[in-house]
Write a structure and sequence with these properties.
The structure holds three protein chains of three kinds. By secondary structure, chain A is mainly α. In chain A, about 65% of the residues lie in helices and about 0% in strands. Chain C is α+β, with helices and mostly antiparallel strands. Classes of the chains: A mainly alpha, B mainly alpha, C alpha+beta. The complex binds heme-A (HEA) (2 copies), dinuclear copper ion (CUA) and copper (II) ion (CU).
Chain lengths: ~525, ~280, ~300
């Protein structure tokens, strides 16, 4: 069927790019759109972070110092929503936009206009969400998990929450479709599936997860909407429904969602560690299968978030076992990364430093996750700061550090400039130290019995809360170095060659830095591809 | 599909800056705000309606551009393939959306209603909170929510519903016939089969509307009739909505056929809509 | 307490490895860092399970992190290490590090499953108490004895927790962990709780009993405990499911008494409640006002 089309008139002005604001607002270029995603993500990270700082400030001491409890709950809720949907996910989509076409040897994403559409939905979605702070009743305060019946008590903000979630969902689905199609249809001849870099692989699988579960979230919040406004009783026992039904539907989305936030990070780590170990990735195929099986398992573990709702014994046992299984493919990945460093020749530039921190700290987060999977023990952990510690280890030192590693890795490629390595190293050490001061004590708090989502606590929790808050301020302030470093790099970095990291493999490094407006206007040669896929 | 097809990227069409995406997301935003205003009754529907109209208009214009580019033949087969894959995955996401509601139906029938009736682990739920409620389906819950003073009767599946199913199945057949005609390049039968398809589609919607009317007036079966009403109307409602959209898209395709669009080899839009139609 | 004091104490902790706190005497230093053993057979089993998983993770951590740290030290470029680029995979090792975790996981799953089965066995209970969570407090109903009452955050904590009340929480005994009327239960008795919610989902959690069960409106969840024969005293817990504005302010206090004391208490209270003209006015708890506010807000 691949009969080349008769009058396929290639656009004449191929490499000319629009200038001024039009370049961004009307963008169809994967790099420009990727940049916009990354900028949005950074902004949202800071907004969500300021919410977090307010939380930590209130929790610095027992007693209420700053906020009304209701407002505190709004802070927690918005912090969670903004960080997950605003900071982490757009960052990964931005990286996919930048890197996937370059890594598979394509000129651009498959559906450029759709691409820009998926991006521009997001700023509007967050405008809608954040402006809910200013309507009667205040911002949603039911937790990012939006459990009914509590969430139905939200004031005028309620429909704003629902519709912003709908918008975020649409954006993610369309974005994911674009990634799948790009990977499936735009690969250069010779770029076979098992030659693809692991970042592309993990994004392909992540995209499938997104397309599968975002609509389910949309369905769940739609039911909330109709329960609130149109008198349906999906989540009301009196009408034959069940509040817990929402939790099942939500977590059917929610658990894959957490892997959506880690798999692309796995991909980044699998690119960075070989580069700075100057050694091919150990067990490439095993890594691919591991990601695939994690993705599969993520669909059958959801109720491990719901062990205390009173499920039948059999269900609890099933979800405990299925959850524990995930440790195996994840373990395979951890071991393969370690084996990649083994007998390598390691150097410690910022991307590698963040990747190493990921390796250690994500694993710690994984361990606590495994503890949470033990149902009887989870009866004690559930809804305490032990859970908060768990998911910040996997999200902040997992997902976020993964993103930072990726940005430090590809920044010279994007800008054509090398950044200030010393400053990056400082940023790393401050972050790595403070993040542990911030989150490690939360394990103790949880075990000692401090519930999450509370604005005030019993006095015996004071010490570790103070430590945690100090860590938060330190970590937060250290993050200011990141945008500074990036701007400095764009403005005044020394020129970086096409391959600033000697150990770097992959098609993106065969292009000049910065790469041409349309990455691969002619597909890369088989030799290039083979050189890139060095495993 | 599993390995890349050879293609000459210099022929790959990358649209240069386009205003549709930003306008699209902005109008979408207006619609959402409109809905917020409406539901919070701040301004009534007066933001929502214009927003919806603009959104609809906008997508017609956007697709117009795409169709026009396609007619000018600046798409190569790879672009065509991208569109197909995109459409397939979009339909898959729609399936998952319905999945959520089927999940709810399943949960209510198999778990929550029996539990409220005291089965399994929830004996005391029934004994203490909802005595003398048997958890049998269909149900509007232990409090007999909504309906005709708490009672309701269900649709007779052998009535119009059966007819409607038949209609949809036939329309699936007619659209396939149209496709064959198109591939064989026989335009007249194509036009006829296609017209038949969307007419059947609209008939379906008509019947469903009539059914709803009866349900509300005579049978006490409403959206608010407990979990049965909720699941029934949400599922059939979203389905009806999709049939309507599908029928409209078929109509557009038909108009394009009348304009002589589509070749036996190249008719992505047609196939996309056909797939969508099979999905509904 | 001031930051300086705290930091000083933490420094001291680092040295002595035990924290000592002014406010809560019964909180030993260890209680700051780990799960309590609790006062029931189950809670101790849970604790044992928790420690077992913990040490397993530590052990695995030692191995995995050991390997990582070793490669960080031994294979640095700066020390002139050259990469062995031929080392790209090795089926034996990969099989090993897939199988070994499986074994470990099974070893962890078995005791977990056993404990769980025990927890879920609610037969042969001697006393039934219906527990209803509401915004924001708890209602306790002794089903067979016709005793019913509400339990709220105690006045002292309630005053101190107001935004900008100049009351130092340290001066309030059991700040946020005290109630006006605790749940009274006998020791050495298998007590079954029938837990439900009045408005939104709450969760009844007393860690020393090893119980956390959600209180779901319209449904009843069962949980049970059997406090050690010789134990008497107060156990403290919280609501463990976000339930609105005052989620952080609906503690749980369980007053465990000897069987004899409990029986006398139950009889007298039953008598009181009978002779009180109306059974017990289901007087809207003070919290209800704020609840309505939250709902309408
Ligand atoms: C990036 C996100 C992310 C990731 C990757 C994970 C990974 C895991 N999570 Fe986590 N989780 C969250 C994000 C994440 N989680 C969030 C956000 C919540 C809270 C949601 C909310 O309530 O707000 C949560 C909550 C949560 C709960 C519910 C807690 C509760 O509310 O009671 C549970 C329970 O089972 C759980 C388990 C796990 C497990 C078993 C893994 C596993 O995937 C971990 C696997 C990894 C390892 C085990 C380490 C490496 C492996 C080895 C070194 C091999 C050898 C190891 C062994 C054999 C043990 N998580
Ligand atoms: C996905 C990512 C993600 C990320 C990156 C973070 C980052 C942080 N989170 Fe996260 N958090 C969640 C996801 C995330 N969180 C989720 C899902 C929940 C659950 C919500 C719920 O219960 O519903 C949660 C809940 C949560 C809680 C529990 C709240 C509660 O239960 O009431 C706390 C408390 O300490 C907390 C703290 C922090 C801190 C201090 C950071 C820090 O890492 C943030 C650091 C960043 C900054 C500080 C911004 C940058 C710096 C500046 C803007 C300069 C100004 C800074 C200063 C003046 C110091 N978070
Ligand atoms: Cu009740 Cu939280
Ligand atoms: Cu999970």
């Amino acid at each position: 069927m691949a009969e080349p089309h008769a009058h396929a008139a290639a656009h004449p002005d191929h490499d000319h790019k629009p200038h001024g604001w039009r370049r961004w607002v009307f963008a169809t270029n994967h790099k420009d759109i990727g940049t916009m995603y990354l900028v949005l993500s950074g902004t949202m990270f800071f907004i969500g972070g300021i919410a977090a700082i307010c939380i930590r400030a209130e929790l610095f001491q027992p007693g209420l110092q700053f906020f009304d409890p209701q407002f505190f709950n709004s802070l927690t809720t918005m912090h969670g929503l903004i960080m997950i949907f605003g900071a982490i996910m757009p960052a990964f989509v931005g990286l996919a936009n930048w890197m996937v076409p370059m890594q598979v040897g394509a000129p651009d994403m498959a559906l450029p206009r759709l691409n820009n559409f998926s991006f521009w939905i997001l700023p509007f979605a967050f405008t809608l969400l954040i402006s809910s702070f200013f309507v009667p009743g205040g911002a949603p305060a039911g937790g990012w998990t939006m459990y009914p019946p509590l969430i139905l008590q939200t004031g005028a903000a309620f429909p704003m929450l629902i519709f912003s979630v709908h918008l975020m969902g649409m954006s993610s689905i369309l974005g994911a479709i674009n990634v799948v199609v790009t990977i499936m249809n735009m690969r250069a001849p010779g770029m076979t599936l098992l030659r693809m870099p692991l970042f592309v692989w993990s994004w392909l699988i992540t995209a499938y997860l997104l397309i599968a579960v975002m609509p389910v979230l949309a369905g769940a919040v739609t039911m909330l909407l109709t329960d609130h406004f149109f008198g349906t009783t999906f989540f009301t026992a009196a009408g034959g429904g069940d509040p817990v039904m929402f939790q099942h539907i939500f977590w059917f989305f929610g658990h894959p969602e957490v892997y959506i936030m880690i798999l692309p990070a796995f991909g980044i780590i699998s690119e960075v560690i070989p580069t700075f170990s100057r050694k091919p990735l150990f067990g490439y195929e095993a890594m691919v299968y591991a990601v695939a099986s994690i993705a599969f398992l993520s669909f059958i573990v959801w109720a491990h978030h719901m062990f205390t709702v009173g499920m039948p014994l059999a269900a609890q046992l099933f979800f405990m076992l299925s959850t524990m299984l995930i440790a195996i493919p994840t373990g395979v990945k951890v071991f393969n990364w370690t084996a990649t460093m083994w007998k390598g020749s390691l150097s410690f530039e910022p991307p590698m430093l963040f990747a190493l921190a990921f390796l250690f700290l994500f694993t710690i987060g994984g361990f606590s996750g495994l503890m949470l999977a033990m149902v009887p023990a989870d009866y004690q952990y559930q809804d305490t700061y032990f859970v908060v510690a768990h998911f910040h280890y996997v999200l902040v030192t997992g997902a976020l550090f993964g993103i930072m590693s990726g940005v430090y890795y590809w920044l010279p490629k994007w800008t054509g400039h090398m950044y200030d390595l010393k400053l990056g190293t400082w940023h790393f050490w401050l972050s790595a130290i403070f993040v542990n001061v911030l989150f490690f004590p939360q394990h103790f708090l949880g075990l000692a019995g401090m519930p999450r989502r509370i604005p005030d606590y019993a006095v015996q929790f004071t010490d570790w809360n103070m430590v945690s808050s100090i860590g938060a301020f330190g970590f937060g302030l250290s993050q200011l170095m990141f945008p500074y470093l990036i701007i400095k790099c764009i403005r005044a970095g020394k020129p970086a060659g096409a391959r600033p990291w000697e150990g770097a493999h992959g098609l993106e490094w065969e292009l000049p830095s910065p790469p041409p407006f349309h990455s691969w206007t002619t597909p890369p040669s088989d030799a290039l591809i083979a050189r890139g896929a060095a495993h | 599909m599993t390995d890349a097809h050879a293609h000459d990227s210099s022929q790959y069409y990358i649209p240069h800056h386009s205003a549709w995406p930003i306008l699209g997301s902005f109008t979408l935003f207006t619609v959402m705000w409109g809905a917020v205003f409406y539901l919070n009754d701040w301004l009534g529907p007066w933001v929502f309606i214009p927003g919806a109209v603009l959104l609809a208009a906008l997508f017609f214009l956007w697709f117009g551009t795409v169709i026009d580019e396609n007619q000018r033949g600046i798409y190569n087969l790879q672009v065509d393939r991208s569109f197909r894959m995109g459409m397939m995955w979009f339909i898959f996401s729609e399936v998952m959306f319905f999945g959520a509601f089927f999940g709810a139906l399943f949960y209510a029938r198999v778990l929550s209603v029996p539990w409220l009736g005291g089965s399994g682990v929830k004996v005391f739920t029934n004994y203490i909170l909802w005595p003398h409620f048997e958890g049998t389906w269909p149900s509007n819950g232990p409090a007999h929510v909504g309906g005709r003073d708490g009672s309701f009767s269900v649709m007779n599946p052998l009535g119009i519903p059966a007819l409607n199913t038949a209609i949809l199945l036939t329309s699936g057949f007619t659209v396939t016939m149209a496709h064959h005609a198109l591939r064989a390049g026989r335009r007249t039968p194509l036009a006829i089969w296609l017209a038949l398809t969307f007419l059947l589609g609209f008939t379906f919607v008509g019947f469903q509307a009539h059914e709803y009317g009866e349900a509300y007036r005579e049978m006490g079966l409403r959206l608010t009739t407990g979990i049965y009403g909720s699941t029934f109307f949400m599922l059939t409602g979203f389905h009806g909505l999709h049939v309507t959209i599908g029928a409209i898209m078929l109509t557009v395709i038909w108009l394009r056929v009348m304009r002589g669009h589509f070749t036996p080899q190249r008719h992505f839009a047609f196939e996309a809509v056909a797939w969508y139609w099979h999905f509904v | 307490m001031t930051i300086r004091e705290t930091l000083a104490r933490l420094a001291l902790t680092a040295a002595t490895g035990a924290l000592t706190l002014p406010a809560s005497a019964e909180e030993s230093g260890w209680a700051q860092l780990n799960m309590p053993q609790g006062v029931t057979d189950i809670s101790r089993k849970i604790y044992a399970l928790h420690m077992e998983i913990f040490w397993v993770c530590v052990a695995i951590g030692v191995v995995v992190f050991g390997a990582m740290i070793w490669s960080l030290i031994a294979f640095r470029k700066s020390k002139g290490a050259v990469a062995d680029t031929t080392m790209v995979h090795n089926t034996q090792v990969e099989v090993v590090w897939t199988i070994v975790p499986v074994i470990i996981l099974v070893a962890m799953a078995v005791p977990a499953a056993r404990t769980l089965v025990e927890i879920e066995d609610t037969t042969k209970t001697e006393l039934n108490i219906k527990v209803t969570g509401f915004q924001w407090g708890w209602e306790y109903e002794y089903l067979d004895a016709g005793v019913t009452y509400y339990s709220h955050l105690d006045r002292a904590s309630d005053a101190a927790r107001e935004l900008g009340s100049r009351i130092d929480p340290d001066s309030v005994p059991h700040y946020l962990l005290n109630v006006d009327r605790p749940l009274v239960v006998p020791n050495g008795t298998k007590v079954r709780l029938l837990i439900t919610g009045a408005d939104v989902i709450h969760s009844w959690w007393v860690k020393d009993l090893g119980i956390k069960k959600d209180a779901i409106p319209g449904f009843i969840n069962e949980a049970w405990f059997k406090v050690d024969d010789n134990f008497t005293g107060m156990l403290r817990g919280n609501c463990a499911e976000l339930c609105g504005r005052d989620h952080g302010f609906m503690p749980i206090v369980v007053d465990v008494r000897s069987k004899a004391d409990f029986d006398t208490w139950l009889k007298s209270t039953a008598a009181e409640q009978k002779q009180a003209a109306a059974p017990i006015p289901p007087a809207a708890p003070p919290a209800a006002a704020t609840a309505a506010a939250a709902a309408s807000g």
